[in-house]
């Protein structure tokens, strides 16, 4: 954990409904993030039946799936998981930028917090460190989701 990462709060998630959208591109790494996030949510008391997971082809599809989920399942919070690794085209930059903006837009348009769990890495090694290593980020995304779900419950 870096010095600027906030310490996770202890939040009881028993009343929360969580939607997760996970990309299949770079599937092994995304599955690791998904596993970490799922375990953290369940440890915080979120009921397994209240965690809905939907797969999409790649990170580029995450915003539309998140938007559909916000409308159909009315979750308290949404998490988008994906791994973008720099390639030799500009596709990486385009998707990283567009998906980050679109996820924010969905959050604001639907009044449902959306956690951007799309890892943007320079290379395979960096991606592995962020998804599989000691500083893997799946659990952090879940803690952020719990905090935002609690805030939504308080302020809605
Ligand atoms: C096409 C593509 C490429 C080159 N790289 C990635 C990646 O590193 N991570 C990821 O999640 N998805 C990638 N994709 C797929 C796009 O997200 C998307 O599925 C396609 O462009 C079709 O819209």
Automatic annotation (TrEMBL):
Residue numbers binding 5-amino-6-(D-ribitylamino)uracil: 25, 59-61, 83-85, 116
Top-level taxonomic group: Bacteria
Entry keywords, A to Z: Riboflavin biosynthesis, Transferase
Binding site for (2S)-2-hydroxy-3-oxobutyl phosphate: 88-89, 130
Pathway noted in the entry: Cofactor biosynthesis; riboflavin biosynthesis; riboflavin from 2-hydroxy-3-oxobutyl phosphate and 5-amino-6-(D-ribitylamino)uracil: step 1/2
The protein's Enzyme Commission number: 2.5.1.78
Broad enzyme group: transferase
Gene Ontology molecular function: any one: 6,7-dimethyl-8-ribityllumazine synthase activity
InterPro entries hit by this protein: LS (IPR034964), LS/RS (IPR002180), LS/RS_sf (IPR036467)
Active site positions: 91 (proton donor)
Cleaved signal peptide residues: none
Any single Gene Ontology cellular-component annotation: riboflavin synthase complex
CDD domains reported for this sequence: Lumazine_synthase-I
UniProt catalytic activity: (2S)-2-hydroxy-3-oxobutyl phosphate + 5-amino-6-(D-ribitylamino)uracil = 6,7-dimethyl-8-(1-D-ribityl)lumazine + phosphate + 2 H2O + H(+)
GO biological process terms held by the UniProt record: riboflavin biosynthetic process
Family stated for the protein in its record: Belongs to the DMRL synthase family.
Role according to the record: Catalyzes the formation of 6,7-dimethyl-8-ribityllumazine by condensation of 5-amino-6-(D-ribitylamino)uracil with 3,4-dihydroxy-2-butanone 4-phosphate. This is the penultimate step in the biosynthesis of riboflavin.
Record's protein name: 6,7-dimethyl-8-ribityllumazine synthase
Species name: Ereboglobus luteus
Organism lineage: Bacteria, Pseudomonadati, Verrucomicrobiota, Opitutia, Opitutales
